[in-house]
Amino acid sequence: MNWAGLYTVLSGVNRHSTAIGRIWLSVIFIFRIMVLVVAAESVWGDEKSAFTCNTQQPGCNSVCYDHFFPISHIRLWALQLILVTTPALLVAMHVAYQQHQEKKLLVMTGHADAKHMEEVKKHKMRIAGSLWWTYVCSVVFRLLFEAVFMYIFYMLYPGYQMMRLVKCEAYPCPNTVDCFISRPTEKTIFTVFMLVTSSVCIVLNMAELIYLVVRACARRSRHNSNPSSGKGSFYGHKHSSEYKQNEINQLLTEQDGSLKDMLRRNSGLQEKGDRCSAC
Amino acid sequence: MDWGTLQAVLGGVNKHSTSIGKIWLTVLFIFRIMILVVAAERVWGDEQQDFVCNTLQPGCRNVCYDHFFPISHIRLWALQLIFVSTPALLVAMHVAYTRHEKKRRFRNGEKIDIEELKNEKLHIRGPLWWTYTSSIFFRIIFEAVFMYVFYYMYDGYQMPRLVKCEAWPCPNTVDCFVSRPTEKTTFTIFMLAVSGICMMLNLAELCYLVIKICMKESRKTT
């Protein structure tokens, strides 16, 4: 399991994201993960071996390195990228659950043929209802993780700039010792680059959040001005037992209407005679 | 055979797991195996070369390293992850055996759809329930055993900066310095926390399975 494996897992989620979400995912993979793997790791590769202190005291090098670099930039970025990309899996799990419910509904209403089942797997889920809340939570968590890591970076390495020389007094170094960091300018450039892309991702996430909220409000105001189109209505098929009917109603109230649209498009079985006010 | 192959093997088991089992598998692959491969292995990469002792005595550094690090964290985590993920193969074997039996019945004349047999999800009941519950139980045992082994071998979960070594051929007591102790402590605590989360998920799954079977039994008797 490496970055390529993570890419495979997350590209599945891409299908159910908004347009801004897809842009965000591309920025993450191309400008952050790829830069980390092909460039930043080689810059930081010799960070310890080339950290040189002006002393021959054994152990002073290690101790000073550990004092000034409690956790390396590369590891912090790797953790940040993993934590920032995983909330998308909440959405993937919710989508999988909704698809499972839709399949159950199809079986119950007698439309469980191969064509409908395939379409359940392939059709894009509308971000409405409970999926909207899951999606918004995942975006909020992403923002939170980005902000927390930027703060941790600032706390550990104030100013985001890499010094050329640090002065170390930790045991067993005798008195104060000058220690020199390898490639400080290159490291500063990459730190600033990763910081800028992190901010771009934060801006994209905030834009996505605003877009989702505005869209939900617009949908609600349209719904209020047109009360005849409602969710959770009675699907006018004749069933042999009331229990089955109640379960179908229960499942329907949990759907956002995308399954009803799909069935209506494909089977054309909604006639005017049926009592279906959702259609 | 590497982590990718293990992922392929376990991905097949995923289909027959409960939802909690699927979450557990995701946490295992993303927060443990992936962190091990992309981050932790680099941190421990130079653990022996950069283990420095305050002496010129040949052999002292090797002996002290071996004394304080009988088995490296990375190897222990790799073993832990392999042991913890393999009970799921018990379930895979049981599912394969059930399918084999169904195919045999088909060959003996019963009408069963072969294609559907390959793709159908088996419900966790009957003997499969016992196999599944045993696999979760073994996972919990292995997690706990490895967490204890870590604690016992390294006297807690913190990596010291300095260790004092008296093993032969080191003259008297010698100061030895461990490389990147803070970063190692951070990752040890992270892996410990995720291990704890995995144990919680396994316990939750066990409780869920037991409650489900009790409810099913009580519905049958009423």
Task: Please summarize what this structure is.
Helices cover 65% and strands 4% of the residues of chain A. Chain A is mainly α and 279 residues long.
Provide key terms for this protein.
heterodimer, A: 279 residues, mainly alpha, de novo design (two linked rop proteins), B: 222 residues, 3-stranded antiparallel β-sheet, 69% helix
Structure description:
The complex is a heterodimer of chains A (279) and B (222). Chain A is mainly alpha-helical. Chain A has one domain (3-222): de novo design (two linked rop proteins), CATH 1.20.1440. Helix content of chain A is 65%, strand content 4%. In chain A, helix 4 (73-85) packs antiparallel against helix 7 (130-156), helix 5 (88-108) packs antiparallel against helix 6 (114-122) and helix 7 (130-156) runs antiparallel to helix 8. The radius of gyration of chain A is 27 Å and the shape is elongated. The relative contact order of chain A is 0.14. Residues 230-240 and 268-279 of chain A have low confidence and may be disordered. By secondary structure, chain B is mainly alpha-helical. Chain B has one domain: de novo design (two linked rop proteins). Helices cover 69% and strands 5% of the residues of chain B. Chain B has helices at 3-14, 19-43, 60-68, 73-85, 88-107, 114-119, 127-153, 181-221, and strands at 52-53, 162-165, 174-177. In chain B, helix 2 packs antiparallel against helix 8. The longest helix of chain B has 41 residues, at 181-221. Chain B is elongated. The N and C termini of chain B lie far apart (51 Å). The model of chain B has no long low-confidence stretch (mean pLDDT 88). The chains are: A mainly alpha (279), B mainly alpha (222). Chain A binds chain B through residues 1-3, 5-6, 9, 48-49, 57-59, 61-63, 65-66, 69-72, 74-75, 78-79, 82, 86, 89, 93, 97, 171-172, and chain B through 3-4, 7, 19, 22-23, 26, 29-31, 33-35, 37-39, 42-43, 46, 50, 52-55, 161-162, 175-183, 186-187.
